[in-house]
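Most newcomers find our protein records easier to grasp once they have seen one. Sequence and backbone structure share a record, each on its own labelled line. To make this concrete, we reproduce a full record directly below:
***
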Amino acid sequence: MTDRPATPLLDRIRRPADMKGLSDSQLVQLAHELRAETISAVSVTGGHLGAGLGVVELTVALHAIFDTPRDKLIWDVGHQCYPHKILTERRDRIRTLRMKDGLSGFTKRAESPYDPFGAAHSSTSISAALGYAVARDLGGVTPEGIGDVVAVIGDGAMSAGMAFEAMNNAGDLGKRMIVILNDNEMSIAPPVGALSSYLSRLYAEEPFQHLKDAAKGAVSLLPEPFREGAKRAKDMLKGMAVGGTLFEALGFSYLGPIDGHDLHQLLPVLRTVRARAHGPVLIHVLTRKGKGYRPAEQARDKGHATAKFDMVTGEQKKAPSNAPSFTGVFGKELLRLAGEDDKICAVTAAMPDGTGLNLFAERYPSRCFDVGIAEQHGVTFAAALAAGGMKPFCAIYSTFLQRGYDQVVHDVAIQRLPVRFAIDRAGLVGADGATHAGSYDIAFLANLPGFVVMAAADEAELKHMVATAAAHDDGPIAFRYPRGEGTGVEMPEAGALLEIGKGRIIREGGRVAILSYGARLAEAEKAAEALTARGITPTVADARFAKPLDRELILALAAEHEALITLEEGAVGGFGSHVAQLLAEEGVFDTGLKFRSMVFPDIFIDQASPADMYAVAGMDAARIEAKVLDLLGVARLGEKRA
C-alpha cells in the first residue's frame, strides 16, 4: 500500500457530485492525482494505459461540468475509461480491472449507472448518443433520468463508416447532443486515411487554442473584423481558426481544435456549450496518448495495451515463453510466402501489430494495407483485390470480423472470390472478456456455400494452413487460431499443403472417439492420458476442417466406436452441429451411436484468465474426461473400471 501515490484531493472524491464545489485550480490538481492513480492501478492489473492517460483532463472536466449519471457520458470503445471509473464510485475496485469478478476494462451497463452504454468495439458512441437524445425528447424514462448526452470518440474511431452514418442522421434530426472528437493522432496503430490528414490540417493551419481568450469571453481581444457583427465573427472565426467545414456540412456546430490537456481551455468551452447549445455540437480536442507517463509516451503504441509493469521504469512483467505466439507464426509464414509470390498481399483493419502484419508492412509496404477501423470496407476491398488477380490475406480478429459479415457473405462468398481470412483471437481471450471472445466465426462461416473453414490445433498446423490458404484459388478460405503462445511442438521450416477437407488421427483407441476442431486438441490429449489410466483408451482425432467435413474420417469414427464426442472453441451451430447433421443424414444415429458435442455454453463468459474461462465453458481436460466417463456410463470415483 505504501507505494501508492499521495492523492489527498482525489481521496475526497467518491462520485462526480463531490467535484461540484472545486475551483478550477483544484480541478487541475485533481487531474494530476487522477493520472497518478491510473498509472498506479494499471501497473498492478495491466490493461489499456495510454488511452486513459490521454483523457485525464477531459474526464475531470466532463464530470465537473455535467451532471452524470443523469447526463449520459458515452465513451467510444472504452479503452480510455479507467479514469472515469475511478471518479464514479469504483476507485475501491480499480485494482481488480480485467480480472475474474473484477471491473471490466470497458464501459459496461451492468456495472454502473455511470456507464450508460457498453462499448468495446469502436465507432458506436455517436449512434448511441443520438439514440439517448431522441429517447429523451420523446419522453423516455431511465432510473437516473436523461439530460445532456455526450459522446467521446477518437480520431481513429471517427474514420469508421458507422460514425459518419450517425453524424449524418444526427445533423438531420438536429437534436441537442455533444460529440467530443478526441484527436490524439494515435489509435492502436497510427490512424490512416483522408480524415486523419484533414484533422492534421485543421491543427496545422491555426489551432483554436491560439484564440483561447475567445472561449473565456474576451471578445475585445479579437482582431477588429471579428467585432463587426455576430454572424461575420462566426464565419471568420470558422474560416481562420476553426476550419470544421466537413462537420458543419454534416449539420454540427464545430468548435476547435482546443488543447485537451489544458483545463483552462476545456472548462470554459464545455461550460459555454452546456449553457448555449441547441442542436448537435462537435468539440475537437487535441490530446496525447500516454500523456504524463514517459514510458508510455515513448512506447511505439503509446502504452495502448500493457501487461503489469514497474511504475518507475515502465518495464512490463511478462512471463517468458519457449513457444512462439500463434500471431507471430502467422506473420512470419506469410512473410516467407510473400517472398516467393508477389501476388500475395495483406489487409488489416487498424491492427497491423496485433495481427502480426508489422513485419510484412516493413518488408512489402506496397502490398500491405491498413484500412483503418473499417472492417466492412476491408473485406470488400480484399474481395476486389482477389477479383483483380491478387492473393489477399484479410487478417482480422474473430470478434472484429463480425462487423464485416454482410460483406463476407455478399462480396466474397456469393462471388466465390479467393479471399484468405486469417482469424486471430479465436476462442476465449481472457481479460478482454465477452466483447472480444472469438465465439461465433465457426458457425457464421461454415454455413456459407463454397467456403473452406480451417482451425489450427497448434502452431505447426497454423503454418501449414497459411501455406494451404496461399495456394487455394477456388473460392474463399479461412483459418482460425487462438491468442497467445503455441504448445511448443516441433516447427517445420515451411508450411506444407494440406489436403482440403481431410483431418488426421492423433492416437488410436477404442470405445470412444474425441474429434477435436482447433486448439482444444492439447486438452483432449491430456484427457485421453487420464482416461487411459482408468482403462479407457480413446481415439483422438484432429478434424482440421469444419468445412468441408472429412466425411470418411467422421463416418469411420462413428462406425468403429460406441461413442463420439466433438470438441470446438465456439458457440453452438458450428463444427459439432455440422457433424451431427452428417451423422443424422447418414442414418448413423439409427444404429445407436452415443454422440455429444462440446461447445461454449449459451452465455457470455465474463473476463478471467483463459484457463478460468475455459473451465466455465467446460472445456478443460478434466471436463472432457468427465464427459467421456458420463457418456460411457462409467462411475468417476474409482470404484469401477471400464
About this structure: Residues 443 and 573 are 5 Å apart (CA to CA). Confidence is low (pLDDT under 50) at residues 206-242, 637-642.
